[in-house]
Structures are given as C-alpha cells and as structure tokens.
Amino acid sequence: LFFQILGAVILGFGIWILADKTSFIAVLQTSSPSLKTGAYILIGVGALTMLMGFLGCLGAVNEIRCLLGLYFACLMVILITQVAAGLVIYFQKESLKEELSSIVESLIENYDPSNDDKRNLQDTWDYVQRQVACCGWTGAKDWEKNEILINKSMTEYPCSCSNSSKDLEVYNGFCNLDDPVNSTATYADWPVHEQGCMDGVEKWLKDNLGVILGVCTGVAVIELLGMILSISLCKNIHSEDYTKVPKS
C-alpha cells in the first residue's frame, strides 16, 4: 500500500512539473528540455511504483514467488536509478547551474511586456521575483542588458523587482523611475531588491536541505526494507501453488 501511495505522489509530482505555470519550475520547464524529460521519467517511475506495489501485495497475500521476485527486482532497479540520479546531479551541479543561469539571463535580456507569445513565461519570472524578493539572476545589474531598458536610458525598471510600496499592485512590466538624473540612470538608482534570485533559490535549498535529504533517505530505507521482506517471503515459500492465483 505504501508503494502505491508513493507511486501516486511521484506520478503527481511529474504531472505538476509539466502543468505548473506559476512558479520557478515553469521558467525551467519552458526553456529546458532536460526538465521536461525528467518530468516524463518521474511519471513513468510513479506508474511503475504503483504497479509494483500492487504486484507486491498480490504476491505476499497469495504467496506467489514469481511476483515477489518481480517486486524485489523492480525495487532494486528504482533504488539504483535514484542513487544514479543523485550522483549525476551532484557531479553535474556546476553545469546544471550554468545552464540555469543561461536560461534566466536570456529571459531577462529579451523580456518584453508587449510580447504576447512569451507572456506566460515572463509573468512567471515576475512572480518569482516578487515571491523571492529578488531582482535579476545575480542581481539587478542583469537587467541593464535588457534592450528596452537600454533604449529608455535605464529610466524604467522591472516592477516585480520593486521594494517600493507604491509598486505593490503592479505585477509585471516596467515602472517609471522618479526624477531620473539628466534623463539617464543606472540599476543603482532603481528602488529594487539588492538580492539576486540565484542567492534566493540557493538559500531556499540550504534552508530545506535537511528536509529534502530526510525524505530521500526515508524513501531509500523503506525501499531496502521492502526488498528484504520480499526476499524473506520468497525463501519461506517452499513451493509454488498457482491455484492461489486469483482467476478472473
């Protein structure tokens, strides 16, 4: 039963990644094919885990060794896959960070409130900046590469970056800077958050690292227990009795 619930959670998480349009995940899955591939893998693993849980229950109740063996094999494959995925993420974290930086920097550079084709993606990034209370990826200076702001001599700034109370009701687009000096300005003149979103995301990961590791470790331990129990049941069943297989 646990693995059926776990499978449903994994399946739901994969579907959420594909369907989510209001968080930082949406920025990644719209721009990065690798995240979409990962979501499909999660959906597949979730469906397999649910099926595996059903087979394990059926094998244990009816004492069918082949089903228990299949249950053990599936658990082992999933556990090995999880460990491999963790190792890949750990050893490729710098390249993943570079890819993520490239995605966000391109988004900021080409941000255009009048572009309806990219409205959902840009609204999502505005949502991230408001919720995390950040500006740009490494800082507000990233926005100085935006062509629209360059053409306006930096006398406007992204509203979602604002730390001013007057901009709280403005959720996207650009806001006018009050009293720009000589009709020009720099990011240092903007009333925006100093923290870059990269620092905000890293801080969130560090704050929740214990929970993430705890959940992953707990799942791995339960999978190991499931493997041990299934192989123990297999050894205790001395002979196959296929008359116990439910007939439709």
TrEMBL record:
Annotated keywords:
Membrane, Transmembrane, Transmembrane helix
Q: What's its membrane topology?
A: Multi-pass membrane protein
Q: Where is the protein found, in the record's own terms?
A: Membrane
Q: What is its main location?
A: membrane
What domain of life? Answer: Eukaryota
**Bilayer-spanning residue ranges:** 6-28, 40-61, 67-91, 211-233
Q: Which SUPFAM superfamilies match?
A: Tetraspanin
One cellular component (GO) term of this entry: plasma membrane
In the UniProt record, does the keyword Transmembrane occur?
yes
| PANTHER family for the chain | CD82 ANTIGEN (PTHR19282:SF44), TETRASPANIN (PTHR19282)
Q: What family, per the record?
A: Belongs to the tetraspanin (TM4SF) family.
Name of this protein = Tetraspanin
Which organism encodes this protein? Answer: Alca torda
